[in-house]
Amino acid sequence: MAQHDHLEQTIAEAIDFSGIGLHSGAQVSMRLLPAPGGSGVVFRRTDLDNFEIAAIGRNVAKVSYATSLMRQGVLISTTEHLLSALIGMGIDNVIIEVDNLEVPILDGSALPYVEAIQRVGIQSQRRKREHIRILKPVEVREGDKFIGVYPGSGYTIDYTIDFPAPIGRQSTSVDLAAETYGSLIAAARTFGYKADEQRLRDMGLIRGASEENAIILGKHGPENGPLRFGDEYVRHKVLDLIGDLALAGHRIEGRVVAERAGHAMHTALVSCLMKDRSAWELARVPVRSVEGPSAVREATPLHRPVLQGV
Predict the structure, then answer these.
(1) Which residue ranges does UniProt annotate as crossing the membrane (predicted)?
(2) Environment class of residue 58 by beta-carbon count within 10 Å: exposed (0-12), middle (13-18) or buried (19+)?
(3) What is the DSSP letter of 112?
(4) Rounded CA gap, 281 and 307, in Å?
């Protein structure tokens, strides 16, 4: 993040992207624009009279193989990688202009977004940043799947996945407060099993998937290796989780634990958080002292435990 991490931030200049949608296979052009303090992250469908959809929990639509947003019947699909990059890079306010129904998949990770944001720079704003500080545990369970968020300083994630071979069981822990997103998470790509390809295409999914934008898994491992990390699969699930939890409207201050979760459970946790106003408060971001990131002043709670726009 930039030096003034207690202030909101936006991108310093507009950024253009183009590519295809992972699931639709449609060509799409996308432009990120600086936005005023307090405006949050807003998608704008330029092909539909600039119709706007805020990236907040109440606009979450169907979530199975991707996280989509919908307002008044207008859809923005596969938002998680971009939202993840914005949280990871400390971008609070941005307008995202898209000329089709799906965000471009690019290389299947968040790295192109991170590199582009680093290239244009980050602009500090005058508005003080707020985080969602977790005050008590909130958990979602579904059979042997689980996700929970707990009080804690910073933003830590413990994630465990358990997939069929050749992935198996993988676990990782990430401390986003240590500014590790760009080096440890951003480059992790989405993945899928070759054996599932036809079934998913018959469902109208992954029409844009290719070896250029996803890890394709055969019986014995990746068909388009090498992997970028030995545990790239679980790192990508962390990437997805960060993007999905961004729909709470602010970065979280607390500890998230996930076991075999996915987009539906990630967004279910956001929904549970929004419904239980005793579980969190909006708090001003701790200001780092000159001694460095480990020396942190106590955050100042705000008196209104209400999420903007939720």
Answers:
(1) none
(2) middle
(3) H
(4) 9
Does the reported pTM lie above 0.85?
yes
Is 240 annotated as ligand-binding?
yes
Tokens read off for 31: 């432009």
Q: Of 9, 57, 31, which Cα lies nearest the Cα of 243?
A: 57
Burial 153-188 (b: 16+ CB within 10 A, else e): ebbbbebbbebeeebeebebebebbeeebbebbbbb
Q: 81 a known binding residue?
A: yes
pLDDT score of 296: 28
Tens-digit pLDDT profile for residues 125-154: 999 999 999 999 999 999 999 999 999 999
pLDDT in tens, 72-102: 999 999 999 999 999 999 999 999 999 999 9
Architecture of domain 7-296: 2-Layer Sandwich (3.30)
- For 297, residues 6+ apart whose C-beta sits below 8 A from its C-beta are 286, 287, 289
Any idea which residue has 């729909």 for tokens?
247
Name residues whose C-beta falls within 8 Å of residue 95's C-beta, 6 or more positions apart in sequence: 32, 33, 34, 35, 39, 42, 44
Average pLDDT over every residue of 171-179: 93
Is 4 a residue of the active site? no
Domain spans, the chain: 7-296
168-172, 260-264, 302-306: least confidently modelled range: 302-306
pLDDT band at residue 286, thresholds of 50, 70 and 90? low
Distance CA 233, CA 163 (A): 10
Helix (H, G, I), strand (E, B) or coil at 135: coil
How many residues are listed for the chain in this entry? 310
Please indicate if the annotation marks 4 as binding a ligand: no
Out of 23, 250, 263, 266, the active site residue is 263
